[in-house]
# Entry
Amino acid sequence: PGAMSPAPAKEIPQEEGEGGGRRSGWGLLLTAGVGGALAALYAVATPFVTPALRKVCLPFVPATAAQIQNVLKMLENRSGSLVDIGSGDGRIVIAAAKKGFQAVGYELNPWLVWYSRYRAWRDGVHQNTKFYISDLWKVSFSHYRNVVVFGVPQMMPQLEKKLEEELECNARIIACRFPFPCWIPDHTTGEGIDTVWAYDLKHSRGCETKSMEITPETKS
# Structure
């Protein structure tokens, strides 16, 4: 009996070691699984919440339901083509298309553009919408009559100058969240972050003079 007594003592630590190894293995698998899931979530979510590389940093902030309704209110009795500068996930473009506009969105973040195209297809307005991956400073907006802008204060002065040089006098520019620095809005609606300012370019400085210059002279 004395010779057999050490055997159980050796077996017990061995069994505990094997069980601990199994638990450790499952722990490593669980940690790897959770880590992989978080990495996948980060890879999918990051392009939606971080800005693409651009001249002025424009973080993606989705338009609220109130902002969309305020924009549509400023588009009442309007017609023609529409462009959303910094279209994000396409909410404004899709809402305008549902109201009958041929609507276009320009966005530098490719993930948001692809997602916008999917949403337009899902909502049945893909034939009336287009989304382009492009830097707004490299695009001419001269053939649009309705322009929607989601910008930041740093870009508004330069964008104001660009739009005044490119757009026709019958254009309406709708600014969301931040107004233009020099133009005086013709219409304003909403409160706080949902405020929307509408500018009719024919009332801006120099536009009436431009209209007079292209008006044919009447015969006496």
Remarks:
- Residues 1-5, 34-57, 209-220 have pLDDT under 50 and may be disordered.
